[in-house]
Amino acid sequence: MSIEGSWLSLLPSLLAIAFAIATRRVILALLGGVLLANGLYHSPDILGAALGSVISLSTTLVDTTNLQIWAFTLAIGALFGVLERGGSFAHFVRALEKRQLADSPRKARMFTWLLGVVVFIESNVSIMTSGTTSRPLYDRLGVSREKLAYIIDSTCAPICILIPLNAWGAFNLGLISAQDIANPLLTFAQSLLFNFYAILALLLALWVAWSGWSFGPMRKADARAVPQSLPEQQQAVSYNSGAARGVGLSLLSMIVMVPVMLWLTGGGSIVQGSGTTSVLTAVLLALTIATLSSRLTLSTSWSVLALAALNGARRILPLAVILWLAMALGDMTRMLGTADYITSLLDGSMPLWLLLPLIFILSAITAFAIGSSWGTFAIMLPLAIPLALSLGLPPAPFIAAAISGGIFGDHSSPISDTTIIASLAAGTEHIDHVRTQLPYALLAAFLTVILYSLYGVMTF
């Protein structure tokens, strides 16, 4: 029996996900998934499977683009360390409290939601900025970091897809333009109105930010969170406005530098720029500003700052390993033809009103299994658009259903890079973030299926 493109190709991802959720040992689960994927791919050659595992892991590790991702991940950890241990973050929190921007749990949550919406240029930058800025506020006010991870994860990706003036928009527009559509840009713009999951996820996160509503595992996470006071040595230090401005400048530079670098690396075109290079440069600039600010405004010694940066990077290292293994597993699922098998399940003989919810569900399963919304878009859009055109139906809702499913599956998957980075930015255990976020994501997905079904019944 051929494994490529068969139901067996699903096993590595699904077993890794199930094991990670059940045992909380994410690294072992992902490593097991990589080994199983290689075992299936090289079956029955055991030696070939062992060698293939080493090659797939090492190839992913030393890939030029991935090396930049590892660097920016560790640099983010170093930035956290410098801001927190260098002492400047305490003054930044006090500045926000003095201006009454985040002096209550509700204001802190709304601040995070608004920040996630405003920074729509790139999802990872949005997640990092919102998480980095908000985390000390949540700790001070006794709001759980799991809720922070949920809010940043549920605003950043949805807003990037709904305001597609970024690499997401360029990527999807390119996929749509490759199909036989008269006006790709107008069709893409129309599809945004039908992107029900992104809209619902954003609105649900807004409601949670405003009300603090918790259910399921999130209720337990909130119960564990208690307000934290500043360390005694920081309580004794008077408010330093220069240190607070330094934090703000550091975070602002990270936001501004991304489009600037996209423009430079793209030869004058933001959509053609290198995302990983841009993000890495932005984070390194923010780290440099944060370090210099702590040194100049608080007279923090170079040795303390260096140690803070190293310790911050060290704390982030397990998440960098998770990201590495998730990418290796994603590469193997593509070689096994996992996505091809999932898309082959679509049966054109089904009632027309079922097509939109079915495309949404298939996209969700694909993204959940491979941990990539971009990969899902590349697979599902060339399937959904010709299907709509062959049936004489408007392509915009089909485009939206494919993209919505990709966002939901990526939002829910423990092996998704955005889910991992949200855990990193919020400073919470990765599986705790997955478990607490999943009920909210499932609620939005359930409502999305209902809306697509209703639209299909009324329109097709």
The helix content is: over 70%
Q: Distance between the terminal alpha carbons, to the nearest Å?
A: 39 Å
Instruction: Spell out the helices and strands N to C.
Output: HHHHHHHHHHHHHHHHHHHHHH
Give the number of helices. Answer: 22
Largest sheet, in brief, is: none
- Rg estimate, integer Å: 22 Å
Low-confidence stretches: none
- β-strand amount: under 5%
Name the structural class: mainly alpha
Pfam families: Na_H_antiporter
Keywords: Cell membrane, Membrane, Transmembrane, Transmembrane helix
GO cellular component, one term: plasma membrane
Subcellular location: Cell membrane
Brief overview, please?
The chain is mostly helical and 460 residues long.
Give a description of the structure.
With 460 residues, the protein is mainly alpha-helical. It has one domain. It has 22 helices and no strands. Helix 11 (196-211) crosses helix 22 (430-459). The mean pLDDT is 81.
Helix/strand layout:
Blueprint: H1 11-23, H2 26-42, H3 46-62, H4 64-85, H5 88-98, H6 105-118, H7 123-141, H8 145-162, H9 167-177, H10 184-191, H11 196-211, H12 217-224, H13 232-235, H14 241-265, H15 275-298, H16 302-336, H17 338-343, H18 355-370, H19 373-390, H20 395-412, H21 417-426, H22 430-459
Helix pairs in contact: 1-2, 2-3, 2-16, 3-16, 4-15, 4-16, 5-14, 6-7, 6-8, 6-11, 7-8, 7-14, 7-21, 8-11, 8-21, 8-22, 9-19, 10-20, 11-22, 12-22, 14-15, 16-21, 18-19, 18-20, 18-22, 19-20, 20-22
Key words describing this protein structure:
globular, 460 residues, 22 helices, mainly alpha, 78% helix, 0% strand
